[in-house]
Design goal:
The chain is mainly alpha-helical and about 230 residues long. The protein contains eleven helices and three strands, in the order H-H-H-H-H-H-H-H-H-H-E-E-E-H. Strands 1-2-3 form a three-stranded antiparallel β-sheet. The longest helix has 22 residues. It is elongated.
């Protein structure tokens, strides 16, 4: 199996081509071979699943330092699943490189989400073993960073602004007031800081967008309100 075309697709050159070859061997192919010693890609898939989870977690934490564990886990689950990984595999044309048995070949196995996702994970495992975590992270960055940047945080973060609005309307008969304190960082990694005043409570929050910063400020205000209520 010539892996040079696949290497061009993924932007990585293997020191040990056999790892890449193994990553593309589906178990249905192995079951039909008489050659001994060939391994399918399931062990690499097992390893790649963990490597991919680590890489995507790293990218999410770097991109959204304001998000808590629950939101990060939810986003990661939406990115690291068979359907999502099959999309990444198709973008790299992995289907044309996977070695399949005749049965899977006849039933369009090259376009099955489960097979494509498994091959993508196996490839991540192979790259990790061959070039280390930095090499695996480079491919994960290429495949996921675009979608991570486009995330709609309002669908992920609990709507603390609405909760604070409801509270201040009920208690103070007024709305919270948000003011931008400032922004910092380069344009592609800009951070915003906002303050919110809700009655006699003032809180601040930082985020990678104005909306996220306001949400974090509202969350902090709600925490202070809860704390003051508990202490009464």
């Amino acid at each position: 199996m010539d892996i040079s075309e696949l290497e061009n697709k993924i932007g990585y050159r293997f020191l040990s081509p056999r790892l890449c070859q193994q990553a593309m061997r589906h178990r249905s192919y192995i079951n039909e071979q008489t050659e001994s010693g060939l391994e399918d890609n399931e062990r690499l898939e097992f390893l790649g699943d963990a490597v991919l989870s680590l890489c995507v977690s790293h990218l999410l934490m770097s991109s959204y330092p304001e998000l808590q564990e629950g939101a990060l886990s939810k986003i990661r689950a939406s990115l690291v699943n068979d359907q999502s990984l099959a999309v990444r595999a198709r973008s790299l044309f992995l289907g044309s490189f996977i070695l399949l048995g005749r049965g899977e070949e006849m039933t369009q196995g090259r376009d099955k989400d489960s097979i494509l996702a498994g091959a993508f994970e196996a490839l991540m495992g192979a790259i990790y073993l061959d070039g280390g975590l930095d090499a695996a992270l480079a491919l994960a960055t290429r495949c996921f960073s675009g979608d991570i940047r486009k995330l709609n945080l309002s669908d992920i973060i609990q709507d603390h602004k609405s909760s604070l609005q409801e509270y201040t309307q009920a208690v103070y008969k007024t709305s919270p007031v948000y003011e931008i304190i400032g922004s910092y960082g380069p344009d592609h990694e800009k951070k915003f800081r906002y303050s919110v005043t809700a009655g006699d409570i003032v809180a601040e929050g930082t985020g990678s967008s104005k909306q996220a910063a306001q949400q974090m400020a509202a969350q902090e205000a709600l925490k202070r309100i809860q704390s003051s209520t508990e202490n009464e």
